[in-house]
């Protein structure tokens, strides 16, 4: 086994061995338990963009997420995970979430988890177009608000001039919330490597740093997700 393979296996073990509970009292706040937070990396203005776990499913975190998005005054939801059938069965768990949907301010995308897959990219583009035609504050969520939502937030941060450290830290924050992962540990570095490596893959295997991370995100959103530069400029304007 080569050094790279050994390193990858070691990273996988670090992540696989992470543990969490579904008990609210095991967490320091409702926000941590629900993996809820405002995204203000780069030039994303306060009060514009939020992310969290699913606010309307049969899950211990859902009532907390629902209460938090109501407190934040969320007006538009980009649901990355649900199919039409799943969404219909999930309405009953949050009256606030249901009201957003019934007002026509929610899109459900039923995305897979592979950001390099055509399905993921095209559906993300559809969700971002929905943002353009609807009002903030926006919520982006999947089931855990961790990976699909993390990648969407990372790309938005990158086009809003966030530095790589900001982008990667926002991604890892979900693992801090769920698993109490600490900076400076092997587990933290292993999770950070997930999102860092993803940007490298988006860049055809070439290094990514503060100088080119925005262009990598722009290439992804135009060439893979199918957005125009005019649409991206509109997204930038509404997030500033």
Describe the structure.
It is a single chain. By secondary structure, the protein is α/β, with parallel strands linked by helices. The chain has one domain (28-239): Alpha-Beta Complex (Protein-Tyrosine Phosphatase, Chain A), CATH 3.90.190.10. Helices cover 52% and strands 7% of the residues. It is built from eleven helices and five strands. It has helices at residues 3-16, 30-33, 62-71, 84-90, 95-102, 118-132, 148-159, 164-179, 186-202, 213-224, 229-239; strands spanning 37-38, 49-52, 76-79, 106-108, 138-141. It has a five-stranded mixed β-sheet with strand order 1-2-5-3-4. Helix 1 crosses helix 9 (186-202), helix 7 (148-159) runs antiparallel to helix 8 and helix 7 (148-159) packs across helix 10 (213-224). The protein is globular, with a radius of gyration of 17 Å. The model is unreliable at 1-7 (pLDDT under 50).
Structural class: alpha/beta
Low-confidence stretches at least 5 residues in length (pLDDT < 50)?
1-7
Q: What topology, given as strand order, has the largest sheet?
A: 1-2-5-3-4
Provide the CATH superfamily.
Protein tyrosine phosphatase superfamily
Beta-strand fraction estimate: 5-15%
For the record, the count of structural domains works out to: 1
């Amino acid at each position: 086994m080569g050094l790279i393979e050994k390193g990858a296996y070691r990273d996988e073990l670090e992540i696989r061995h992470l543990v969490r509970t579904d008990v609210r009292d095991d967490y320091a706040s409702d926000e941590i338990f629900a993996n809820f937070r405002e995204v203000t990396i780069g030039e994303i203005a306060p009060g514009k963009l939020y992310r969290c776990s699913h606010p309307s499913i049969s899950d211990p975190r859902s009532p907390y997420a629902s209460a938090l998005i109501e407190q934040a005054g969320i007006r538009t939801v980009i649901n990355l995970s649900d199919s039409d059938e799943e969404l219909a069965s999930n309405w009953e768990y949050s009256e606030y979430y249901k009201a957003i949907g019934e007002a026509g301010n929610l899109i459900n995308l039923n995305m897979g988890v592979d950001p390099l897959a055509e399905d993921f990219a095209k559906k993300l583009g559809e969700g971002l177009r929905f943002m353009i035609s609807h009002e903030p504050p926006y919520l982006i969520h999947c089931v855990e608000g961790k990976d699909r939502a993390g990648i969407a937030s990372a790309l938005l941060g990158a086009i809003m001039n966030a530095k790589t450290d900001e982008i990667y830290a926002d991604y890892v924050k979900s693992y801090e919330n769920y698993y109490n992962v600490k900076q400076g540990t092997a587990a933290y570095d292993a999770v950070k490597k997930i999102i860092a490596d993803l940007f490298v893959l988006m860049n055809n295997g070439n290094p990514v740093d503060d100088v080119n991370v925005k262009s990598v995100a722009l290439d992804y959103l135009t060439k893979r997700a199918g957005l125009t530069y005019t649409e991206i400029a509109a997204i930038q304007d509404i997030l500033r």
